[in-house]
Structures are given as structure tokens and as C-alpha cells.
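Box S2. Input/output pair 1.
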Amino acid sequence: MDTNDNAWIPFYAEPGDTITLYLDWEDLMARSRARDHNYPLVHTAYMGKNAGLSYLAMMLSGHFNYSYDKLAQAQKTLTPAQFQEQLTPVVTQWQEQADSLSCLYAPSQKAVSLIHNQVNLQAGYTYLEFQLARNYYAQKDTTNQVLKVQPDVSYYKFLKEMPLNEQSVLANANVGSFINRFEFMDPLAPAYNIQIELQSDEDFKALSEDEKKLHLQLKMSEVKDSIVNSLCGVSSSLFWQIACVRNLRYVLSEVLKRRQDAEIFVSQLEKTVSHPYLRATVREMQKTLYPVTKQTSYRLPEGKATDIFRRIIAPYAGKVLFVDFWATTCAPCRQGIQATAKLREQYRNHPGFQFVYITSEAESPEKAYAEYVETHLKGEACFRLTDTEYKYMRELFQFNGIPHYVVVEKDGSISTEEVRTHNLADFLKTRFEDSH
């Protein structure tokens, strides 16, 4: 649960549970003043049948962490094999600590699982996080030979040790970030290179554009399933099912235009997605994105995420907004921003239109962010949110990968029209040719 200013308070709940949580304002203020997300909340109280597990989850949230500064340094100075060698004794120490804690909680198998799952997920997250920004750093520093070294398949052996089918792992605060890294990890690159291979296939070239898109998505999905199942040692793990469902919105809203193609793709996806809740989510998503009567815009649901977004766009009320969710560590994001430089200049100070750029502290380090904005986005409406606030944006607009674009209509509703950097000029010309 998020209270304010990134103040996360973990809790443990199972389907059907009722959670009661007592919060003390002085506790929260003390944590805020300390600027420490793990600062103890001594007066916070949990009630309910799983209160003990909630207390344990809160205690564990501050354990088994790998220093962000140490990780950033390792990314630039160590090869994957060297980092693996460095992290192994750290994880071993975490496991020993987890064994000691487990002795205290031995009567509860759920508690023991929660403890060991925390270690396993944190280790997996750290391994994947190490790889995340190395390609970006390599582009910034082409002389660094360490950054040119890519991991072999043995680097990912940790995946076979992870409890990827246990629902209780979802109680971990880093689970969303782990699944994001899991979905886009480097070993999946062959799936994204299939389009290049298909360009020389005569049968593929004979297909219509819509047929090509469907064929490509089906093939990519098949290859990714095969790679992930091999790396994890299990077929269609729960975590991979979640990753596939998170990616589905992009495929259905951005790639496949025909209802019949969406049905074919969803039918194949259901061979991987077996969890009842996730299956229901897949069908509900398909129904929403392919309604009988297509809506031109929709209203955001009331809640914390919408409140955050409304505060961001409040200064531009009454304008059409092109909102770009981006990061300094995302090459396609930077390419899209730089490709629209002339367009931004053309529409600067337009009475009916505004560009808005939103990123996060976690994905756009402060120094890199300041330098990039000064060079490429000076004078634009730029916002760098806390990691918590940005996660709210991901949930609100249901996106995982970036760049992600949203068009806000003058009345504050969200357009269903697919506007991206490649067709933005045509969109603006159509909307504003009479007034600009």
C-alpha cells in the first residue's frame, strides 16, 4: 500500500481476506523526515487472520537489499560473469539469514515460504537489474570494453532456482519491477529479430500487411515461450503468464487492427495462460479493446493514479495533450523525442495543443535526466516522478514497455486514437490545420 511520497507499507493478504491496518501519522512523518523507505513504523498495527504474516512482510521489506550505488558501479566495471561471482556470496549470506529467520517462524509454512521467496526474488531482480542499463552505458562510453561483454546462458541459471509458480511471491515489493525485467531480458532478443529473418521469406512477403503483423506476433510469442521455458526449467510459469498478459494490451491496441486477428492471437495465448484470473483478464481486455461500438475516448477511473495524473496536466486544461512516457535509459524513447524536435518547435505556444513528457526517478537518473532535458527538451513540460508515482501511471494507462504515448482531449478524456511519433504530424495537421 502507498500512503504518500513513496511511503510503501507492505501487507500480506490472500483471496477472501479482510485487511485492517492502523496507521500512526507521527510514524509516517518520522519516515518522511528520515528519507528512508525502510525506517521502522513502530506504531503501525495489522489486524486480521494473517496479521502475523503482514508484520513479517513489513520486516522483510528492509532486508536482503543490494546497494543501488554498488549495483550502478558494478554495471560499469564488471562483466556479467564477474558480477555473478560478486553476487553469489551475497545471495548465500541472504540465504543463511533466511534460514535463521525460518527457524523462528518454523510453525508457519507460509511464513517460511515468505522469507525464502523474498531472498529468491531479490536475487533474481538484482541479476536482471544488472543487465538493464549496460547497453545504455555502452552507448555513452564506447571505449569501455567491459560493457561490450554479454552474458552467456549460464548467467540466467538463477531463474531455475526461483519460485516462479508461487503466488505468495507476489507479496514482494519488487515483484512488478522483476516481471518487467523478466519480460524484456536479453535472452529474448531472438524473438524480436524474427521480423528481420522473415523479410527474405517469400511466403511472408506475399501476405497482406495485417496478415504479416499477425504472423509476426504469433511467431514472436512462440519463440519467447520456448526461450523462457528453457531458461526457467518449467513450462508457462505463473510469472511468465503475468508478463504475457501485461504485454497483451500493447499487441491488441497497437499492432493488431482486425477483430479476427485479435481472436487468433488470444486463442494461441490461452495455450500459455492457464491461470483462471489471468484468462478472465485476457478476455476482458479483448472485449474492451474490440467493442462492438468503438469509443473515441474514455474517462479515467477515480483514484490515486488519476489524481496524480490530473495534477500533472492541470496547467494545460482545455488543450489537447500529447503525453510521452519515456526514460533516459530507453533508446527508442530518445529517438522518438529527437525525431519530433521540429514538430515541437512548430507547435510551441500553440493555444490548443501541448507536449507533456513524463519519466521516473528510477529510470531517468538525475544527472542524465538534467543533461538530456537541457539538450533536447528545454522549455518543454517535463515531469520526473517518484518510482511510486510512475508505477501508478503504468497501472492507470496499463503499459509496461516504453515509450508509451497518450492523447488527452480538451475535456480531459483519453483518446482511443492511435497517435505515435510517426503519425503525430498528420494528427496535428488534421486537428489544427484550420487554426494554426
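Box S3. Input/output pair 2.
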Amino acid sequence: MAHAKTSYVCLSCRASYKQPYDRTRQRTCPRCAQPLIHAGSAFATPRRRDVAAWRTLTVLLNAGVGFHKSCCGGPGYRPRTLREVRERMAYAQRSGEPIAYALVRRDVG
């Protein structure tokens, strides 16, 4: 039986590749030879020219937020704009909550 594929992302090239998941293997970008970041199986790639979406994605992936399927389907809430990211970063700073947790909060108060 074939292994399920998951997404690996190169942030500098703004490219995503679907490959079988292997925890022991470090994947590299075929364009620039930089290491790829494991984004998860529920990842949807933004258009290459959508700079704001890639900036948002960069913050999420560098904070350790992935796009993995949960038991109920999708990965849950993820901010889609830089404004939403800034709101959650400010909340994390105010509340002392870790950034990765604040980024996946639907509501910040």
C-alpha cells in the first residue's frame, strides 16, 4: 500500500511539493537546494504572486504551526492575513501565551 503524501514548502521559492512523509529524511528544494519545511497534509498552497499570504505562511511555519488533519477533518483555524497575525502576536505578548498557541486561536480578546 502506498504511503499518504503530505506537503513540504520552500518559503524562499514560494513552492510546495507533495511527497510521502518520512520523519528520518530531510527534504531539499529542487530549485534552490534549501531545506523544505513540513507543512502537513491539510496544507493549501497560496498563489506564488500572493506576497501577503506567503508572509503570513512564513510566520506560521516558523512558529511551528502546521496544517495537519485532525480527527474531525481539517487543521482548525489559521490566520489568513497579516493583520490577523499581528493581532495574535500582540495578544501573545500581552497575555504571555506562547506564540504558536496564540496564532491558532480563533478569537483574541
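Caption for Box S3: The mean pLDDT is 90. The longest strand covers residues 5-10.
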